[in-house]
Design a protein that fits this description.
The structure is a single chain. The protein has helices at residues 2-38, 114-122, 150-161, 179-187, 205-217, 221-234, 270-279, 294-303, 305-315; strands at residues 55-61, 67-73, 83-89, 98-99, 111-112, 126-131, 167-177, 196-200, 256-262, 287-289. By secondary structure, it is of the alpha/beta class.
Length: 319
């Protein structure tokens, strides 16, 4: 009798077990798709005043009409005379502060922009930190396109800086992370002159998406992300295959570009970034950051800020 009951209950128990196992994966897959479509509204978790930085709130528009918001951080000892400026462009799904660990389903680490921004300010650079579309407190214009439409935001940021009498419009540099690096590489030829760019772990979506999905969703991740990619494209995004900086960077004839890539990055690809370096007319030697995962590469900038200050001093012609 007991055996018969157990036999009859076996399909139900199997289904319940599979559902329990699949449930978290389905939830994470849906959440990953949501992040691809509408981004993330991480709250601002640190402020310039926390580091005694002189900053002002700024609002400006991208060329395609998206309202963007950020902080203009003045250089230390600002006397009103025109000075060089550095624009930080954050990754997905971060905001102008960088990334706060645990804010999304992604396995991540905290990446703080205000520390490096303070170092640049003390070195004589103004700094712009802003939220790209669909992130932070900037306006929405879905979907997230991992650098394609976000390049408009970079163009808007540079245009805004060039209206300011305290900014030397001939000496603006860009530092972008992941999606933000893609956006910087795509936008720079249309923002001339941009003499210096630091591209921290730019990535081709066709490489990043399945690799990250495998990490977040397990073995089924690459198949699930292919389905998600169809929804993403139906929402107005280019296909993953078209989100590929290697195809854009040949236009950077007048830009010195310094690439940073983590050697142990499981989501991006060192070979992908090496191809970008090979296609970039004025690429500096690639920095391969020691890492065992994606975030080690991002943190290299905060840990070696003086290297990047020196790069921008050289490329922007700062004595």
């Amino acid at each position: 009798m007991v055996r018969e009951r157990l036999r009859r209950m076996a399909p139900f128990m199997l289904g319940l077990g599979l559902g329990t196992l699949a449930g978290p994966t389905v939830f994470r897959a849906i959440e990953a798709l949501r992040l691809m479509l509408v981004g993330q509204r991480q709250p601002l978790w640190r402020y310039p005043a926390d580091l005694q930085l002189h900053a002002e709130d700024v609002t400006f528009a991208s060329p395609d009409g998206v309202t963007l918001r950020g902080w203009f951080i003045h250089r230390t000892g600002d006397d009103g005379r025109p000075a060089p400026a550095i624009v930080f462009i954050h990754g997905w799904p971060w905001n102008r502060c960088g990334n706060r660990a645990g804010a999304t389903i992604l396995p991540d680490r905290t990446v703080d922009f205000l520390g490096p921004a303070a170092a640049f300010s003390q070195a004589g650079f103004h700094v712009l930190l802003f939220d790209v579309r669909n992130h932070g407190v900037s306006d929405a214009r879905p979907p997230v396109t991992f650098g394609v439409n976000e390049a408009h935001d970079v163009r808007g940021a540079v245009a805004m800086l060039r209206t300011r009498p305290d900014v030397d419009g001939e000496r603006i540099g860009l530092i972008g992370y992941s999606m933000g690096a893609n956006a910087a590489l795509r936008a720079a030829p249309d923002c001339a002159p941009i003499r210096g760019i630091v591209a921290v772990q730019p990535t081709s979506a066709s490489i990043f998406a399945p690799n990250a999905a495998r990490d977040v969703l397990g073995p089924a991740g690459p198949a699930l992300i292919r389905i998600g990619g169809l929804v993403h494209r139906a929402a107005g995004s280019p296909p993953f295959s078209a989100i590929a900086p290697t195809a854009w960077v040949h236009r950077l004839h007048d830009n010195d570009v310094l690439y940073v890539q983590g050697g142990g990055d499981r989501w991006g690809s060192l070979a992908d970034v090496e191809a970008m370096v090979a296609n970039t007319p004025r690429a500096h030697p690639l920095i391969v950051a020691p890492s065992s995962e994606r975030y080690g590469g991002y943190l290299y900038v905060a840990e070696h800020t003086d290297e990047f200050i020196a790069f921008f001093r050289e490329t922007l012609g700062c004595a």
